[in-house]
Design a protein that fits this description.
This protein has helices at about 25-40, 55-60, 65-90, 115-120, 140-150, 185-190, 195-205, 220-225, and strands at about 5-10, 45-50, 95-100, 110, 125-130, 155-160, 165, 175-180, 180, 210-215, 230-235. With about 240 residues, the chain is α/β, with parallel strands linked by helices. It has one domain (about 5-235): Acetylglutamate kinase-like (Carbamate kinase). Helix 1 (about 25-40) links the parallel strand 1 (about 5-10) and strand 2. Helix 5 (about 140-150) packs parallel to helix 7 (about 195-205). The two termini are about 20 Å apart.
């Protein structure tokens, strides 16, 4: 097993499946089964999910809402998604703990590095919701922060494309895929992997980022086993 402890970053939009809004139960259950396939091998898994399928803070700003208020609404959307994933995971007999960067009793415990690591070592999947708990930070930044805090071996960023390309593969059929990149190469090429705050945090802490297609069944398990899937960014 290549990775013993991972931070899995999922986008809120991914949970929509083929819908235009909300949560697709089929997609949710598929993700739960994939996560079960790696926890059953002993891999420790922490998860951060976005909230874009429900609400984005910047969406509110575009409609004239205060940025801080909009960001807090977006953080609450991540809590809803995290609760949904927690339920799906428990349906396939995975023990979980839901933590949050925001204080939301009795739904979630306050995020604590010590507690998160303790729960991971007990064999639980730890879902960390509520972003960083502060406005002006994305869930990418939250994922990077939490991954560093729990001493993850890597961030696995599950998307709907199978890695990082020279251009958007959904718009440019001539786009070429990278199998691996250094942080400096990714930055110099202007590749939008994560926001700059998250990217800098990963680089400074020598935390690899692996971008892959989470919607292809078996990909997560292959990555944990050390097989070539997606694009790896490292120092």
């Amino acid at each position: 097993m290549k990775y013993k402890r991972i931070l899995l970053k999922l986008s809120g939009e991914a949970l929509m499946g083929h819908h235009h809004y909300g949560i697709d139960p089929d997609r949710l259950n598929d993700y739960a089964r994939q996560i079960h396939s790696v926890t059953s091998q002993g891999c420790q898994v922490a998860i951060v999910i976005g909230g874009g399928n429900i609400y984005r803070g910047m969406q509110g700003v575009g409609q004239g809402m205060d940025r801080v208020q909009g960001d807090y609404m977006g953080m609450l959307a991540t809590v809803i998604n995290s609760m949904a994933l927690q339920s799906a995971l428990e349906t396939v007999d995975i023990k979980t703990k839901l933590l949050s960067g925001m204080t939301i009793k009795p739904v979630a415990e306050a995020m604590s590095r010590r507690k998160a690591i303790e729960y991971l070592e007990e064999g639980r999947v730890v879902i960390i919701s509520g972003g960083t708990g502060n406005p002006f930070f994305t869930t990418d930044s939250a994922a990077a922060l939490r991954a560093v805090e729990i001493k993850a071996d890597a961030i696995l960023k599950g998307t709907r494309v199978d890695g990082i390309y020279t251009a958007d593969p959904e718009k440019d059929q001539n786009a070429e895929k990278y199998n691996s990149l250094t942080f400096d190469e990714a930055y110099s090429k202007g590749l939008k992997i994560m926001d700059l705050t998250a990217f800098a945090l990963c680089k400074e802490n020598n935390l690899p980022i692996l971008v892959f297609n989470m919607n292809i069944k078996g990909n997560l398990k292959k990555i944990v086993e050390g097989k070539q899937v997606g694009t790896l960014v490292k120092g």
